[in-house]
Design brief:
Helix content: 55-70%
Number of strands: 0
Low-confidence stretches: none
Structural class: mainly alpha
Largest sheet: none
Mean pLDDT: 84
Strand content: under 5%
Order of helices and strands: HHHHHHHHHHHHH
């Protein structure tokens, strides 16, 4: 209710004016205004980026949501295909309009400099073994696994032997080093596997199909 009073999505609505055909041109009059569609996208974000069918259900059953969007009590909301069509238009033609406008709105209602705002940090999570495994070593192992699977799936049969004999199960298996020494050894092993993989596949990049080469090189 407070968001409806404080936030005016006029800038986002203006960025999406091309979604409806111009007045006087062929086509049935639109059932829902662009302002309503924009508010529906805000509801989608509020509902944890819900799916189109889930958003359709909210718009048909939640009275507070219907009030926020501006749907009359007896008017059905749009079906999921209509919601998907506007979401696709917004993603293609104004992908950052909503983000930029909301950021401007937040800067206006909370002008405090983030650099001077006290931050709440979960220090226990930062020191836990789970946090330690999500570092560079984990990222390298994950990227190596993706690269190996990509090569196995798309490289020509003649180039399959270029892939070093890796234990893909080991790369996929989560690891939780608990000491500084364990973490260092884990990182060194990940770097070694990465170098082994890159050295083995790089000489053969030029012989791959362009689409496959782009994916493998990245």
């Amino acid at each position: 209710m407070l968001l409806a009073q404080w936030y005016d999505p006029a800038a986002v609505v203006a960025a999406c004016q091309g979604y409806h055909h111009a007045p006087g041109t062929p086509g049935a009059p639109p059932t829902f205004s662009i302002a309503q569609f924009v508010r529906m996208e805000l509801v989608r974000a509020w509902a944890d980026t819900c799916s189109d069918p889930a958003l359709e259900e909210l718009l048909n059953t939640n009275l507070l949501v219907r009030w926020f969007v501006g749907l009359p009590l007896t008017q059905p909301g749009p079906d999921y295909s209509t919601l998907a069509a506007f979401h696709a238009y917004l993603s293609v033609h104004a992908p950052d309009a909503c983000f930029a406008d909301v950021r401007t709105f937040l800067a206006r209602v909370d002008p405090e400099d983030p650099a001077t705002t006290p931050q709440i940090v979960d220090t226990f999570a930062m020191e836990s073994p789970v946090a330690a495994c999500r570092g560079p070593a984990h990222l390298l192992r994950h990227l190596c696994l993706r690269l190996a699977r990509c090569w196995l799936a798309h490289a020509p049969l003649a180039l399959q032997p270029a892939l070093p004999p890796l234990d893909l199960g080991m790369l996929a298996r989560p690891c939780s080093p608990r000491t500084a020494l364990d973490r260092q050894q884990h990182l060194q092993a990940a770097v070694a596997v990465t170098a082994w993989l890159v050295d083995g596949l790089t000489p053969h990049l030029a012989t791959l199909e362009p689409s496959v080469r782009t994916v493998v090189r990245s």
